[in-house]
Write a structure and sequence with these properties.
The protein is α/β, with parallel strands linked by helices. Helix content is 40%, strand content 22%. It is built from 9 helices and 12 strands.
């Protein structure tokens, strides 16, 4: 009888010890829209790639968990997080007070801001110059540029589009006067369309990207923040910048803008 009780106790202890290991082996499901290179994209074989993918992979590794990237449209990311379809959102998402009403955010990991891609002959020198009747301003649906235009532009016509590429095309073809988007994307879009566009790269609204976390998941939030702090101290973000954004990093330095990672 004693031997049987001892065996049951040992089995119980082993089972208890295995619970954390089993829990840690659960995949970390990270939501992102794979349509924003070089942060979220697919490689030539169709696999997820980019700054955010590497960041998610390194985060999951630090937690001892495999990572699963869930490709989700940008405006579907917060609903996916709230309903438990994903554990985290790492998708170049700006931490805003409005979004923070429904999800939690980690500490910021990147600083950027809203800028303007203008058609080549636009006389605008600031966002204020665009808030006039007859002016058409393009935004991508669900972004902070969309939110800004909706709340701040009272006279201009706001053109809401699903894709960044569609908004850029509107400006490069002269059908829209401007496109409100983040600093680095505005720079890239201007470089690709320098014959038909120009850029105002000084942000008129400062913004910060952070990891989206479901409300109430305080332990995961603590783990993410600890990882981000350690990752920065060990040069992880510096390495990501050199890996994916070396040319832009050097160009921003030349132009006098602080690099965002």
């Amino acid at each position: 009888m004693k031997a049987k009780l001892l065996l049951l106790a040992i089995v119980g202890l082993l089972t208890t010890a295995l619970v954390p290991a089993a829990e840690s082996a659960k995949p970390l499901i990270v939501g992102m829209e794979l349509a924003y290179p070089p942060f979220e994209m697919t490689d030539t074989s169709g696999k997820p790639a980019g700054v955010s993918v590497d960041l998610a992979t390194d985060l999951a590794k630090s937690l001892g968990r495999p990572v699963v990237i869930e490709n989700t449209s940008f405006d579907g990311l917060i609903p996916a997080l709230k309903t438990g379809k994903v554990d985290l959102v790492i998708s170049s998402m700006t931490a805003t007070p409005e979004r923070a009403k429904s999800i939690d955010f980690s500490d910021p990991y990147l600083s950027t801001g809203l800028c303007l891609l203008l058609k080549k002959d636009s006389p605008a020198k600031s966002i204020a110059d665009l808030d006039r009747a007859g002016v058409k301003v393009a935004v991508k649906k669900g972004t902070t540029g969309h939110l800004y235009a909706t709340n701040k532009l009272k006279k201009a016509t706001v053109l809401v589009l699903d894709k960044e590429s569609a908004a850029v095309l509107e400006v490069s073809q002269g059908k829209a006067d401007a496109f409100i988007y983040d600093q680095m994307s505005t720079y890239q879009n201007w470089q690709r369309n320098s014959a038909t566009t120009r850029a105002l790269l000084e942000p008129f609204q400062k913004e910060y990207w952070a990891v989206g976390i479901r409300q109430g998941n305080d332990e995961l939030k603590r783990q993410v923040n600890a990882f981000l702090k350690d990752y920065r101290q060990k040069g992880g973000f510096e390495q990501l910048g050199d890996r994916y954004l070396k040319e832009m990093k050097d160009e921003f330095k030349r132009l006098g803008y602080s690099f965002f990672l």
